[in-house]
Amino acid sequence: MRYVLPPINAERVAEYIARRLRWYVREYAGKRAGVVGVSGGVDSAVVAFLTARALGPENTYCYVLPSFATPKEDVEDALRVIEALGLPDGNWEVISVDPILKSFEEVLGEMDRVARGNVMARIRMIILHEKAYAHNALVIGTGDKSELLLGYFTKYGDGGVDVLPIGGLYKTHVRQLARYLGVPERIVEKPSSPRLWPGQTAEGELGAPYELVDSVLYLRFEKWLPEERIAEELGVEVGVVKRILEMVKRSQHKRMMPEVFHVGQRDLGSDWRYPRQWF
Ligand SMILES: Nc1ncnc2c1ncn2[C@@H]1O[C@H](COP(=O)(O)OP(=O)(O)OC[C@H]2O[C@@H]([n+]3cccc(C(=O)O)c3)[C@H](O)[C@@H]2O)[C@@H](O)[C@H]1O
Ligand SMILES: Nc1ncnc2c1ncn2[C@@H]1O[C@H](COP(=O)(O)OP(=O)(O)OP(=O)(O)O)[C@@H](O)[C@H]1O
Ligand SMILES: [Mg+2]
């Protein structure tokens, strides 16, 4: 398999994202600070570094929100990020989501691991928004371009954020940016995982390494090559390419506002009907 993404200019990208994030939070939203859920993974580490660069450590709030499925090394790595940023004491906290998850299961009954994982992600979302309200802040999202295109996130969970500063960067580019920013190497090298159940890895669930996923997405959406040419170019079966692009199609609803059924002024009280072929 060939990796075809050109590298980014990490210095310029970091500068651009930090400036734009500062403008978005301060000028556009009129807020003071940013709240980040820090997992010990590379996306949230990069976003925490960029938020501190944009707004200053005193205006950056980091929350580590482990569950029973979080390895203890991840909590250690999350704390390393917080230490590296030099956040003041009141600007970070470790809060276990397990008691909240347990009370959900007591009321709703036991859930399977996917359902429980999505509830876990939505519990984190609620906590982060509560903290944002408390600190006059926005919830800074950590989704990258690969996850957003694949729909590899929980709708209204880790997807329920206010702004997506690294949403224009593929996962492999986020790792490059992480190295430039000085994110600890163990975090940069760690295989991506939502950690929604023990042993879960992103590449295991997606069925392909991110180098391949990113190459397919790049050749399709930036070079507009047809599926067969992408397969040839990367030296993989066309079925692999089709499967990745199918994930993009099926997750369109996660990248849009919910469909609104508009009712126009002239429809109210008139006998005009939508043409049959619209349905
Ligand atoms: N066509 C459509 N139009 C409008 N809405 C539609 C829809 N199809 C489904 N839906 C709605 O979407 C829901 C399904 O979406 P969702 O609840 O997200 O659930 P789903 O996509 O099934 O699962 C989330 C996936 O993201 C992964 N994940 C989650 C969290 C974090 C990370 C990470 O990388 O850190 C990864 C997780 O491992 C899993 O593979 C349905 O329950 C339904 O309500
Ligand atoms: N234990 C956790 N504590 C705090 N936030 C979390 C935790 N688990 C997930 N999150 C939030 O959900 C986001 C989505 O998880 P995801 O696994 O995609 O990102 P990551 O762990 O930062 O990087 P990677 O995708 O490489 O694992 C995280 O970036 C983080 O903001
Ligand atoms: Mg992760």
UniProtKB/TrEMBL annotation:
Deamido-NAD(+) binds at R122, K155, D162, H253, K254. It comes from the Archaea. It catalyses: deamido-NAD(+) + NH4(+) + ATP = AMP + diphosphate + NAD(+) + H(+). InterPro entries: NAD/GMP_synthase, NAD_synthase, NH(3)-dep_NAD(+)_synth, Rossmann-like_a/b/a_fold. Keywords: ATP-binding, Ligase, Magnesium, Metal-binding, NAD, Nucleotide-binding. SUPFAM superfamilies: Adenine nucleotide alpha hydrolases-like (SSF52402). Its EC number is 6.3.1.5. Residues 15-258 form the NAD/GMP synthase domain. Pathway: Cofactor biosynthesis; NAD(+) biosynthesis; NAD(+) from deamido-NAD(+) (ammonia route): step 1/1. Mg(2+) binds at D43, E147. GO terms for biological process: NAD+ biosynthetic process. ATP binds at G37, V38, S39, G40, G41, V42, D43, S44, T142, K171, S193. One of its GO terms (molecular function) is NAD+ synthase activity. GO terms for cellular component: cytoplasm. It is an enzyme of class 6 (ligase). Homodimer. Belongs to the NAD synthetase family. Catalyzes the ATP-dependent amidation of deamido-NAD to form NAD. Uses ammonia as a nitrogen source. This is NH(3)-dependent NAD(+) synthetase. It comes from Thermofilum pendens (strain DSM 2475 / Hrk 5).
